[in-house]
Amino acid sequence: MNTIDRHNQKPDTFLVLTAPGASQADIKRGIAAVWDAFNAIDVHPYAAAQAALEQENFAETDSNDGDGVFPLTEEEYQWATLWRNAGEIAMEACGRKYDALGPDQNWTVELDWSDRVFGST
């Protein structure tokens, strides 16, 4: 099993929050809360997203090398869980409740970086 570097990141990584019905102030507050959550456990969101992807790949292929070994450490599993809950963290920071939203109103957090958004020069 390969471990994931908790500080692995793309240069100039930033978070994008899609939040239907949210004000610009809510979006800033939500993004700050998500960064705070990752900083509190000293892991970069990019590393947490990698852990979530590893977990999804494992679930899709049901591949465990035949020895029952889960591909993530317990700590990496916690990172993946935090990544999946990032939208809820943002909502809570803005006084919103996940249960009160319709399916098309979920808040989602994604990673992006400047050369992907604006293109390489």
UniProtKB/TrEMBL annotation:
UniProt entry keywords in alphabetical sequence: Plasmid
Name used for this protein in its record: Uncharacterized protein
Species of the source: Albidiferax ferrireducens (strain ATCC BAA-621 / DSM 15236 / T118)
